[in-house]
Automatic annotation (TrEMBL):
Organism encoding this protein: Halomarina halobia
CDD domains (UniProt xref): crotonase-like
Protein family per UniProt: Belongs to the enoyl-CoA hydratase/isomerase family.
Official protein name in the record: Enoyl-CoA hydratase/isomerase family protein
First and last residue of the signal peptide: none
Gene3D superfamilies: 2-enoyl-CoA Hydratase, Chain A, domain 1
SUPFAM superfamilies in UniProt: ClpP/crotonase (SSF52096)
PROSITE patterns in the record: ENOYL_COA_HYDRATASE
Membrane-spanning ranges: none
Top-level taxonomy: Archaea, Methanobacteriati, Methanobacteriota, Stenosarchaea group, Halobacteria
Length: 241
């Protein structure tokens, strides 16, 4: 279900279940978490096989959780926490995680994309938080990430309506940062940069729950580390810019 391929500077992670639009089972979630947790490359490129990015949770897995809930009231919450752990693993990965979204991203697929550092869509990409149409909502961290990425107004529109958004609208409201025929080219662009700088920069921009003062202190410390690591090259000077 999850395939990885490592090149010199990019780990490609493929959601490889095209017959189910790359919907994720519990085993698939665990495998995805492992694939992004400690990659050997500074950049991870996450994409789906076939004509979809990811349809979210496998409906058979959701049905099994629903049946289990009759005897175990914690089963549904445990399933949600499993997806949340995967989304956090993407956010906390030392690598920059680029989502290449081609075709449909639905429900949990949108939530996993939101956890990535960059989201790049093809013109054919579409997005929808469809849970409300059948009595659920995205519980893999999507409620707070959608608000963080889109702002409250757009987040409420997307989540409460369940409507489908095309790539052009996704770009306009900030759900994706670029629309490209070849999203992998953006991963290559990022990977061409200094890996130490990428590793230091990602958590600084992410910020988490740190205060402004804590974030600025971390920023200064990381900058100092990079200057020390590249002192010889910096000492030679490169002009302005």
């Amino acid at each position: 279900m999850i395939r990885t391929r490592d090149s010199d500077r990019i780990r490609t992670v493929t959601l490889d279940r095209p017959e189910r639009r790359n919907a994720l089972t519990e085993d698939g979630l665990d495998a995805l978490s492992a694939a992004v947790a400690d990659p050997p490359a500074p950049v991870v490129y996450l994409h789906g096989a076939g004509t979809a990015f990811c349809a979210g949770a496998d409906l058979d897995a959701v049905a099994a959780v629903a049946r289990e809930s009759a005897a175990n009231p914690d089963a549904a919450a445990d399933f949600a926490r499993r997806g949340q752990r995967v989304a956090r693993a993407i956010e906390d990965s030392p690598a920059v995680v680029v989502a290449g979204i081609d075709g449909a991203a639905r429900g949990g697929g949108v939530e996993l994309a939101l956890a990535c550092d960059l989201r790049v869509a093809t013109p054919e990409a579409t997005f929808a938080e469809t849970g409300v149409t059948f009595g659920l909502f995205g519980a893999w961290g999507g409620t707070h990430r959608l608000r963080r990425v889109l702002g409250e107004g757009n987040a409420l529109d997307v989540s409460l309506s369940g409507r489908t958004i095309d790539a052009e609208e996704a770009l306009r409201i900030g759900l994706v940062s670029r629309v490209r025929e070849d999203p992998f080219a953006v991963a290559r662009e990022i990977a061409d940069n200094d890996p130490d700088a990428l590793r230091e920069l990602k958590p600084l921009v992410r910020g988490g729950s740190a205060t402004v003062e804590e974030r600025e202190a971390r920023e200064a410390e990381a900058f100092a580390r990079l200057v020390a690591d590249h002192a010889e090259a910096l000492g030679r000077g490169t002009g302005s810019g």
